[in-house]
Amino acid sequence: MCGIAGLIHRGDSSDIGSELTAMLQALKHRGPDSTGFALYGEPVVNQYVIRFKVAEQEDMRKGFRIHEEVKDRKSEVDRRLHEIGVKIISEEQVTEYAYRYNFNYDGNMKRLADYVEDIEGAEILSIGTALELIKDLGDANTVSEQYRLQGFSGTHAIGHTRMATESDVDIRSAHPYWAYPFNDVSVVHNGQLTNYWNSRRELERRGHRFMSNCDSELIAVYLADRMEKGEDLEESMRRSINELDGVFTYVVATGDKLGMAKDVMAAKPMVLYESDDFVALASEEVAIRSIFPHEIDTYDPYEGEVRVWQS
């Protein structure tokens, strides 16, 4: 079933970590297996943020040997980053297996990502000037507390609560997905794509990589491919309505935009609230009311609708 949510402040920053946590916790009943956040903070000139992991949560229960392997993987990540000219400004170990770095780099970001992910067990969750992508097993409160997301200041965010249906319950299969290799592009999705494998093979032939077998990742890679060809976000989303088969509602975010697209059958729910200063959207109204408990007017997007908002 799954639940998706997004919010954007048009102007000032806010505690989007707490706001999105509340929205996703209200959707816990739609997906108790894992929760993911794509949070957009204030960018720093000439700096990037990378979020990566070197193991799955369940791996850490396998004893001493896996802990040593995790240390070795992390050391190899550091070695490779140094080798290609990355200057690490700050480093944070968030969990036993997840890390957050601020860094400078003027080289090819795809080369960086490919070189790191060539390490067995290593996966980059996101790279961006504003985007920080966090996902793990458990409900929104659990993941938010584990990664200390309360108080995260930014302009917009998207998130997902997952009920696993066709792929494993692990971090790799959780949403959101970073639109590799594009900085600051992320996607969450509720639905099912029926042309997943054909579309995936075509994108792989053009050099795109996939880290999971989840059809939602296809949307992120599809949008990255279209934007690489020169289309803007809204144009890419409108094209997706015709080229992605199935029933779906998805939300996409970039460094300064939030977008929503719904297939022509409109089978997957979405509720919107919009004011002059703020936009919130979610699979159910209860999520929006978790941060707006007073009386508000919401509406449902129509079939085939695409909307994009600027921060």
Structural summary, described in words:
- With 311 residues, this protein is of the alpha+beta class.
- It folds into two domains: 3-41 and 136-310, Glutamine Phosphoribosylpyrophosphate, subunit 1, domain 1; 44-128, Ribosomal protein S6/Translation elongation factor EF1B (Alpha-Beta Plaits), CATH 3.30.70.60.
- Strand 5 and strand 6 form a beta hairpin.
- The strands form four sheets. Strands 8-3-10-1-16-15 form a six-stranded antiparallel β-sheet. Strands 11-12-13-14-17 form a five-stranded antiparallel β-sheet. Strands 5-6-4-7 form a four-stranded antiparallel β-sheet, covered by helices on one side.
- It contains eight helices and 17 strands.
- 28% of the residues lie in helices and 31% in strands.
